[in-house]
């Protein structure tokens, strides 16, 4: 409902049901809900509260059918998640990430092309991470430089125009992909070395590995700069048009340009440079959506 797919909630609730069954519970109780919510001892208190809130919402629904289900009180774990401030990537950091992606090992040689082009596309378009992964070949109109994102937030689709240099980078990738994977098993535009669609978790895992190589995270850090840093509400995108709250750079091709700016060199993505303006020189949000170029 309202665009929420409840993927995480569905998985966690299945684990909660298994937890209750192991303890021979016939109904939801506050005690069982609290035990399960605080089961991961190394988790942050806000995560405990989130797990309990999922059970509470489920218990509210279940208690309508069976009143013996207990609904945990809302103030049982009064912790709240505080979103960390978005990390502002400098151009040299984006260049380092893409360069590290281009050096990734692989048994066919397709992996470095795929990862480097994906990172470049996310950096210059502001697309959500799962959106470029969901692109099929028919969704990428290279002659006109337009991407069709289908079934995105709230189930809607939209068109994402890209700059000529981005189009050239995508065309270069498509040529390498077809050369290295002539018999794909998926219609996806971006392919894994097995010829299948790249999964979001695989891309995120690769990003963590690359960010450690580039020094953005420590060797054992589980937290650090994210693959997709959302833009702040009220930012202005591309050609000066107001962006949708929390998003940027999707409506105007000028904001998607792979080009150099006056104050520094451009990083590379798939053979083309990319440069995005920001409130301080030499900085950008990776995946946060480009803003107006100087």
Q: Mind sketching the topology for me?
A:
Layout: H1 7-22, H2 30-37, H3 45-65, E1 89-90, H4 91-102, H5 110-125, H6 130-133, E2 140-141, E3 146-149, E4 158-161, H7 164-180, H8 200-213, E5 268-269, E6 272-273, E7 283-284
Antiparallel strand pairs: 1-7, 2-3, 3-4, 5-6
Helix pairs in contact: 1-3, 2-3, 4-5, 5-7
Biggest sheet record: 3 strands, antiparallel
Strand share of the residues? 5-15%
| H and E order | HHHEHHHEEEHHEEE
Radius of gyration, rounded? 22 Å
Counted by DSSP, the helix tally is 8
**Helicity range of the residues?**
25-40%
Give the N-terminus to C-terminus distance in angstroms: 41 Å
Shape, principal axes of CA atoms? elongated
Mean pLDDT: 78
Number of strands: 7
State the low-pLDDT regions, or none: 230-294
Properties at a glance:
294 residues, mainly alpha, disordered C terminus
Structure in a nutshell:
The protein is mainly alpha-helical.
Structural notes for this entry:
This protein has a three-stranded antiparallel β-sheet with strand order 2-3-4, with no helix packed on it. A two-stranded antiparallel sheet has the order 1-7. It has 294 residues and is mainly alpha-helical. The protein is built from eight helices and seven strands. Strand 3 and strand 4 form a beta hairpin. Helix 2 packs antiparallel against helix 3 and helix 5 runs antiparallel to helix 7 (164-180). The protein is elongated, with a radius of gyration of 22 Å. It starts with 6 loop residues before the first helix and ends in a 10-residue tail after the last strand. Helices cover 37% and strands 6% of the residues.
